[in-house]
Amino acid sequence: NGSIVWQKIIQHTLIDHTHKLLENYEGGYYAAGHTQPAGSSNGTMWVVKMDSAQNILWDSTYSSPNVTEHIHDAELTPDGGLIVLGHSYDNSFLVYRLAKIDKNGKLQWSKKYGTMSNLGDTPYEVRITSHGNYAMFGSSEAGPGAATFWLKVVDTAGNSLLDKHYGTGYSYCYSGRQTADNGFMLVGEKNPGQFGNADMLVIKTDSAGNLEWTNQYGGIAADIRYSF
Questions:
Q1: Are 203 and 149 within 8 A, CB to CB?
Q2: pTM of the full predicted structure?
Q3: Which of 163, 176, 166 is nearest to 75 (CA)?
């Protein structure tokens, strides 16, 4: 009926953001995001696990000191843990960081992925594929007003299986899903310039990442899609 059943404030430092909330297989919850001290720009990947009574079971961070890293998305893995996707930095360029965390909060492995572009790569979503692999959706920037959709699929150890870019000009991907035929759908915006009026851009690929079709939708003003 919309009445509040319970609410809880969880604080790690002074600035805490949650970007994904998941109900885990044990009936409790995962909250994933980032935390940072007041006055500092160095965010840290942060995950909290609660039981069904909202008691905190563990509260962990997963970044090195003096490195800004934020979790953008997370998904439950079959073993009850999490796969989390966020951004990190490599040689001052923004890159993807993918990390596997077990149900006890232990970091099992972590890898960074970048396209060696001039401005960097921005991740938005991670999805577990029908084969149990991890599909990452986001964008890669090559310069002001130039960006492409980026689809990156890796296996359960983080090894690359598929690496594809789509779109021209300023094409920025915000969301993606695997389709029933094991291909992928990606959605975001296509812009004539970084600050022009965008159209919604939708891209469909086959299971190997080959482009099957692409469509733009929009009117006179800006039209952007953030999620399927």
A1: yes
A2: 0.92
A3: 176
